[in-house]
Each structure stands twice: as structure tokens, then as C-alpha cells.
Amino acid sequence: QVQFVESGGGLVQPGGSLRLSCAASGSDFSIHTMGWYRQVPGKQREWVARISEVGDTYYRDSVKGRFTISRDNAKKTMYLQMNNLKPEDTAAYYCNRVFVSQSWGQGTQVTVSS
Length: 114
Hints:
By secondary structure, this protein is mainly beta. 0% of the residues lie in helices and 46% in strands. The protein has no helices and 10 strands. A 6-stranded mixed β-sheet has the order 2-10-9-4-5-6, with no helix packed on it. A 4-stranded antiparallel β-sheet has the order 1-3-8-7, with no helix packed on it. The protein is globular and about 40 Å long.
């Protein structure tokens, strides 16, 4: 079973930046489309961004132009650079395979507040 460990969250003021990391176990990280998701208590988890095995990227409309997803297959790690953060970005952020989802990790909390 593949495991994911998210890190890099924290408390930041509106307009600030954070870089999240997602470290994956297993040997086939490079062949899967990976995604970032977020969840606010009481709401469903929502998709934020995804990156294909060849580097094609897609974003939900609310984060386009502010977030950048990337991956380093040699390190089996995915990243999410988040700029110009807004209070509505506050959530627990998770990573997973997009089309063959695995067990969810613990996530990393992002709080955007002044």
C-alpha cells in the first residue's frame, strides 16, 4: 500500500506564500497522475490541482494563477507552491493519486488569517 506524507503547512497572513510537499512511498510514483486536495471541517474534500506523469497540470478555477503544482519523480515528491493566499484557502491539504486513489495521509493544515 502506498503511503503519502504531506508537510509544509502553517499559519500565514493573506497575500502570503507556502510550499507544500507530498512524499510518496512505493516504486511507481512516476507513472501516476498525482493531485492535491483540500478539506474544510464539515465539507467534502475538493480537488485543487493535478499533474500528470508527463507534467501536464490542471487547476481548479479559484487557484489558477496563484498555485503551482510540480513533481520530482526521482525524489518521489510532489509540491504545491501557493502564492497570494486568501482566507478561503484555509483547509487541510492532502495528496493522492488521481485515478487510482490510495489511503489518505494525515494532511497538512494551512491557515490563512490576519
